[in-house]
Design a protein that fits this description.
275 residues, seven-stranded antiparallel sheet, alpha+beta, disordered N terminus
């Protein structure tokens, strides 16, 4: 069942119980403290009447997030989330936001913003990759709502597409409780290189990869432009450093992390927009 929001009168007593959330206007939030309470959700948004302090307990925060999601129109929320992610790449919103991942990936790709599925239900990996993402969360009704994950700061996530202001700051623990394990990572390939670079490949993409890995200390072989055994070892070294599966293939996740670590590229990061 949905957990009703605590009233302003009950908030002081509840603040001591656990970390909680602040609903804020987009782009104007201040960082949260662990003892702050849910605020900014008026009676119209409260899932039920009857104030309770249960929302402040860690185990109740996911239920409350689910209740807020149930109050949101899924199509409107998805449009807000997609627009917020595109904005991080200085790209205008879509006139129409498709329902399916495949159609949405194609539409965003026409804006030069790529979508890549998170390969495993791993919230720590999602956080470590540090890229904006579209994340399906489960509402109280069981329906999935796609929200934009656009910031993380000290264990607090900034979500777009939920709450009366459209922007919500919530502990990652609450997100994890409603997460189905899927995320659509948004990134940009700054160079004209293959989506996947692997053993046996040759050409400019491999040259860039070898040079990048050498600069970062993961490759000490010759820059040949051929994806040889030494290049495989360099890619594996880089992948291990970043907690990826060391398969030796420079796919989307590896390329995303390379762009994020090299000084000449400035991809949008979750940490850069939090707080």
């Amino acid at each position: 069942p949905a957990v009703p929001i605590a009233s302003a009168a009950s908030a002081p007593a509840a603040e001591a119980n656990a970390a909680a959330v602040v609903v804020v206007p987009p782009r104007s939030a201040t960082p949260l403290r662990d003892d702050e309470a849910w605020v900014g959700v008026d009676a119209h948004w409260a899932p039920e009447s009857g104030a309770t302090s249960e929302v402040f307990a860690p185990e109740g925060q996911g239920d409350f997030l689910a209740a807020l999601l149930s109050r949101q129109d899924p199509a409107e929320a998805r449009a807000m989330a997609t627009s917020a992610v595109l904005e991080r790449f200085d790209s205008p919103p879509l006139a129409y936001v498709p329902d399916s991942y495949e159609e949405l990936a194609a539409a965003m790709g026409r804006r030069d913003v790529l979508l890549t599925l998170l390969p495993a239900p791993d919230l720590e990996l999602l956080t470590r990759l540090d890229y904006p993402a579209l994340v399906p969360l489960r509402a109280t009704s069981g329906e999935l709502h796609v929200v934009g994950l656009v910031g993380i700061d000290g264990g607090v996530a900034e979500l777009v597409g939920v709450g009366p202001s459209g922007s919500l700051r919530v502990p990652l623990e609450a997100v994890a409780q409603q997460w189905i394990g899927e995320a659509w990572l948004a990134w940009r390939s700054y160079l004209d290189v293959p989506y996947i670079i692997g053993r046996g490949d040759a050409g400019p993409g491999v040259l860039w990869l070898q040079e990048a890995l050498q600069r970062l200390g993961d490759f000490d072989g010759a820059i040949t432009g051929r994806y040889d055994a030494g290049t495989v070892d360099g890619v594996r070294s880089f992948q291990r450093r970043h907690g990826l599966d060391p398969d030796g293939i420079a796919g989307p996740l590896t390329q995303m992390l390379l762009y994020g670590e090299l000084d000449e590229y400035t991809p949008p990061r979750l940490g850069a927009h939090a707080g």
